[in-house]
Design brief:
Elements lengths: L1 H21 L4 H29 L1 H23 L4 H27 L7 H18 L1 H11 L4 H4 L1
Helix pairs in contact: 1-2, 1-3, 1-4, 1-5, 1-6, 2-3, 2-4, 3-4
């Protein structure tokens, strides 16, 4: 769950920004749109955590992943629009969905370990998830996109 969340963050923060600029959008406008959407998404980290306290960590995190997969096609359509408002909306929705994964993540990870190994287990799990989810994702996504003849569906 953590690796997928980190992977999604990297796809949004690196690939989606580069993709949007490559479609002709103003680079500075895209970066401002992403920054503004990031601010909006902070609230959804809290809401994701609160919701996970009520319905459980797994349902919230799995729901966030499923929603994000469903959202990928419309997201790339919005990012291709060259309309800075639609680009902001694309980033905002993507980051809102993504943020629901991070609200419950710390509690989810710590609940996987007993009290004698919780700190080590959570730390190791978090670091490996970052490495596997975020470390290789930009290169993999960029290569898939390139090898497919720049077909957005290949990334989805």
């Amino acid at each position: 769950a953590g690796a997928a969340g980190f992977g999604l963050q990297v796809v949004l923060a690196t690939f989606a920004v580069t993709y949007t600029v490559s479609k002709g959008a103003d680079r500075q406008g895209v970066l401002y749109a992403f920054a503004a959407a990031s601010l909006v998404s902070i609230v959804f980290v809290l809401l994701g955590g609160k919701l996970s306290d009520k319905v459980g960590r797994r349902p919230v995190m799995i729901g966030g992943l499923v929603l994000f997969v469903i959202y990928l096609v419309p997201m790339f359509a919005l990012l291709s629009s060259n309309n800075i408002v639609l680009i902001f909306v694309a980033f905002a929705i993507g980051l809102m969905i993504h943020s629901t994964l991070f609200g419950p993540l710390a509690a989810f990870v710590s609940e996987q370990f007993g009290t004698t190994s919780r700190y080590t287990g959570a730390s190791l799990g978090y670091q490996l998830a970052t490495l596997l989810g975020a470390g290789f994702t930009p290169g993999i996504v960029a290569q898939i996109f390139k090898d497919s003849g720049q077909q957005t569906s290949s990334v989805v």
